[in-house]
Task: structure prediction
Amino acid sequence: MHKLKILTLVGLPFVGVLTAMVLLWNQYLFATDLILMGVLYVLTVLGITVGYHRMLTHQGFRTFWPIRLFFLAWGAMAWEGAPSEWAATHIRHHAHSDEEGDPHSPLDGFWHGHFGWLFSLKNFESAKTYAPHLLKDPVVRFVDKTLLFWFLFSLALPFAIGGWTGLVWGGFVRIFLSTHVTWSVNSICHTFGRKDFESLDESRNHWLIGLLAMGEGWHNNHHAFPKNAFHGIKWWQFDGSGILIRTLEKLGLVWKVERVSKKALDSKTSETSATRTMLGDLRNKLVHSIQEKKKELSHHPALEKKYQQMLKRLDKIQVYLQRKKSWKRQTLLAYEKEIQELYQQLKHRLAKPLKSS
Ligand SMILES: [Zn+2]
Ligand SMILES: [Zn+2]
Result:
């Protein structure tokens, strides 16, 4: 049942894109369609980034309830689920980023991180465990309960303004674009891009997703400072959501806006270089430990093929570690575990008499 629901939510916008291609081929496209697509894209993406993410999940700022409702309603129209469930799942992502328990780490496969994770109910978190406070919030409860209305309204609105072609472009194509762009924060921004801070996960800053996802592509900045209402830290890191929050703050419509102090930024920067040194040391330690273990497990010609391959595997890991200079923490830890396991098995085997060849 859940799989069917997700298949519909992911599949319908895709069918919409195919329909749009046919319409385009027949030159059946109006300016209203593109305006609808653009405006609704910006509003629903902001609903997710400013509303669901920065306001609701990370409490990056406070605001009046009508503005809270405004953002959450636009977020609901992005077809990414109910606000409380979205926030709870995202809190779990921050608690277990790129480790076991992360609902959508691309370390479990790029497409799993992008949208494969949606198909398994166990990757969704209920607000009861991760964000019980949200269930007491009347605005959140209202949008949670009226979710289906917002889903349908997000199609009815472009249909009412632009007719059938308006529905295709402003509805389905727009949902296709906004969902894939926001999912890219989980897939692309945990795989490609720059790591300005050592946040002990695989989060990265990616300029293109920064641009398309209204600033959310500066995702390594975000993992380094999750509460910060601004994801662009350097002046050139375009952060559409941040610009909107700053404007609303100037107008007195939002307050208690979370920022990173210069001191926190500096200490994170020095922490980053310390972590990089730590990772370099860990890599050297692993190389050294393989060398030591290999000495101890001196090669024996009578060893069965399976164990010969284990020794070869140790050699291979050593070559990898020596060749590549900068490593991900997760990979190093996985190697450390593998080396230990190989070593234990080999040691155990060598303790027994070997058949003479
Ligand atoms: Zn992340
Ligand atoms: Zn977050």
Q: What stands out?
A: The pocket of zinc ion (ligand 2) is lined by residues 53, 57-58, 90, 94, 222, 226 (CB under 6 Å). Residues 147-187 form the longest helix (41 residues). The chain has a mean pLDDT of 92. DSSP finds 14 helices and two strands in the chain.
